[in-house]
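Q: For a teaching session next week I want to show students how multiple molecules come together into a single three-dimensional assembly. I've collected the sequence lines for a complex. Could you give me the predicted structure tokens for the whole thing so I can convert them for display?
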Amino acid sequence: MIITQQAERGGVVRLTLSGELDLATADRLQQHVQRALAQPARKLVLDLAGVAFCDSTGLGALLHARNTAVEHGTGFQVTRPRGLTQRVLEVSGLLDILTGATDP
Amino acid sequence: MGEEQPEAIRFAQVLGLLDADPHGCALATAVRAADGSIADFRLVYLNEAGCAFLQRPAQEMIGRTYRQLWPDTATDGTLPLYQRVVEEKIPAVRTVYHDRPTLTGHFEIRVVPLGDGFVARFVDLSKLTLGSQTEGGARLYDALDAAFDGFAVLQAVRDDTGRITDFRCEYINQIGAKLAGHSVEDRIGRGILEQPSRSAELDLFPQLRHVAETGDSWHQQIAVTGSAQTWESKAVRVDVDIVAVSYRDITEQVDRQRQLEQSAALAQAAVDRTDALQAVTAALAAASSPDEVYLAMGTVVRPTAGGQGLVVLLAEHDRLVLGYHAGYEDHVVRQLRELPMSHPYPATSVALTGQARYVGTPEQFDAAQPDPATAISRGGRSAWAFLPLSTAGQTLGTLVIGYRDAREFDPDERANLMAFARTAAQALHRALLHQAQLSIATDLQRALLPAALPTLDGARHAVRYLPWTQGADVGGDWYDVIQIDDARAAIVIGDVAGHSPRAAAIMGQLRSAVRAYAADGYPPADVIGRANQHLCRYEPNAMATCCYLELHLHNGTATAVLAGHPPPLRYADGHAAPLRVKPGPPLGTRQATYHQQTVTLPAGCCLLLYTDGLIEDRHHTIDRGLTELCQAIESAPTRDPDRLLDHILDAGVGPDPRSDDVAILALTLESHPAAPTP
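A: Of course. Below is the structure for the complete assembly, covering every listed component.
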């Protein structure tokens, strides 16, 4: 899985993920999130448009990312889940809670 | 006198010629017996060269007979030859060898009939030279005598039908004669088959005949019958009916070759031992349970390796306990079941000190255990290696390898055995540890899942749990049936993320929490909400999914809450479909809210709760799995919960092969629900 980071207007840090989010790659997401949150940011956005596959470990990683951001006092939002990823988020009841923005 | 005179004059002239001859010359006349046959020959003349040759004065010899002068000639074929020459009036040539104080050398004797007798001329062959005379080359025969090989020139002897029946030895050198166990003198002029000896030439005769007849050369090693010798021999036809044979004794070289081969065999055995050790090491590395370790160790004990039995004794505080045995008799096994560390059997001191002990003979074994009443018996063994099973500074016990025959444990073998024992100890240690973890995990899981589910009034249920992983990688799936009160029951299914004892422990906590909140009478959404708070507080990084259904069997409804879990299926009126319940997030999500939804349960309907391992994995989408599951329920011949579950599991629902644990719970309502109690 490839993760790229961009700074955007208004203090937003966008992490764009592409590939598979699962047991093999979940740790890397967490490392990236920690690094992204090391610099001051108002909101962390995870763009999942390129995520072709996400299993329960991937879901756990997304949740963990959300929890970390919340602890940091940073806003958090997951955007553009597609296809299978979206379906998995639906079935797990995480779609609303992850894609709905949390306030910083 | 007058008649004899011409004879005498002729005779004198001949004598004059003979006097001047550099070669020895003798004249002899026949001595006839009464019947006219030749009995002897009288030497009547010997020239100067002849006298010098024979190293005796003429007066001593002239006038005496051959039998008197040289008694051997009567038996060595000389006299018969001369007889033939005189009687048949044909000349002959003969080669002789003499090795006597008076006469030494090879001679060619040319015999020519003269009167009633013969003239014999001796040609000293040793005066023939090899190489140019001006260069002073070695004498041919000296050269041949100096050779390493035996050398002989043989003349074929044919019978009346022309068949070769023997070979006469025309020449043989010193070594050749010696090899044949004779003196040169004995051999020259004799047929090789004449002597009744067990000589190698008897073995050679058929080959020599073949060479003489065909002209083929022959070169071979032969083992000499009746002796431990091996000869290498070569025979070549040098002229019609003349075969030259060279031969050498190669017994020493053959022995040396055999020794080399033995050393090579020993070296190969050492290599094989190393290879065998490597193979066993690989098998040990792959072993994951103590039984697999013992199996791999057992391969070392093969009859070809000289091993006959193997015993593993494990150390426990103050005693050794039998862990494994192979190839040991029952009565010895019984003795070895448990030994105090104070017992003299060598295995105990090995376990205590970590030092190997090698017992090479039955006597040594008996000497180590002086008290016959308590001594461990030898069984069928005569030698033992007691090896410590030590790893990471700890001695697990003793490995005993027993051998059928007494044995010297040389340094090489000891090193091999210790290497083996070390590897076996590591493997065993790892396997024992794994086994301990395994049993803890299994015990844990077994304790955490309900042993028996309560029966519900108005519905039957059945459950299946199919773990995907084994041993310590226990999963976190759980299921439960809770009788809340007279009117309410709950069925639950859940899945803690991960496969580890920790996941199993978390599962246990969640199950208890859900039961507790349910028993407290909380509505389903609150039961799940509180369970979630519980998990978030006590296990911050844990995540679990859960499906909770509160059943109101008397009025045919159920209230469902989903926490990140796939929806239950309901089968009614011939149609199976997921319950349309909006899922809340998984347990472990902070600040989550849960909603509950009530659904109807027609009489006789089926509910199926399951974990996602049943319907989906990386390659099998959840929607596809759900469709397959609905089809499986619809095609089931019965809604009896147990048989329904069997049918579903056989119907090829979901991923094949499975890649996760599967838990399924089926509940079938009675066709005619009981009336609610007032």
